[in-house]
Write a structure and sequence with these properties.
Blueprint lengths: L1 H17 L3 E7 L14 H15 L5 E7 L14 E5 L6 H8 L10 H12 L6 E7 L10 H8 L3 E7 L3 H8 L4 E4 L2 H16 L3
Parallel strand pairs: 1-2, 1-4, 4-5, 5-6
Antiparallel strand pairs: 2-3
Amino acid sequence: MLRVATLILAVIVASAAHGEDKVAVVLDLSAGSWKSLDDGTPAFVAARSALASWILELPPELSVELRTVGGASPATDLSSCRDSRTEVPPGPIVANAWHQTLVGFRARGLRPLLLGVGAAASDLGTGDERRRIIVVTSGEDDCNGDGQAVIDALDSGVEMRVIGLALPLDAAERFGAVAPTRNATTPESLFDALSWAVEDLIGGA
């Protein structure tokens, strides 16, 4: 009996040491995300709606951050290539906060995608828990960003999933060479891709 109790305690301690999984969503709000999906919906509008529904499907205790690239500065502004912001900080899900944030999003400016992914990796920090970045984007980096931070993050154990918003085939292939990628062309396939991006985390895999 003592041996069984000791084993159970060891499992509990190991589980606690592993910590909670962490997710960071990097959402493209550049002018390029005005492009239409197959049904005519602008990509950023479809992303707002899909994320608002997706967040309701997640365990509320899961730590999820929302970070954007683009959206604040016009493309003619030099600061557009520094435009990446934490919109919902890491932590347990508060659906109302997500919804209030998402509804205000508009698309404009350039897409400093590498800057945003590198910042998300830094936000996730280090630890034994699984750390995953979900990139939702209508295109590749516009700003000749430094990819070293992304490479370092992946080398450190950060996982990445890419969800394209009607990406050209060649861009989808380039993303797919770096991380598992789905290319959504309809609002329905976008929601499905978001579910795919976390299914192994929330499914206990």
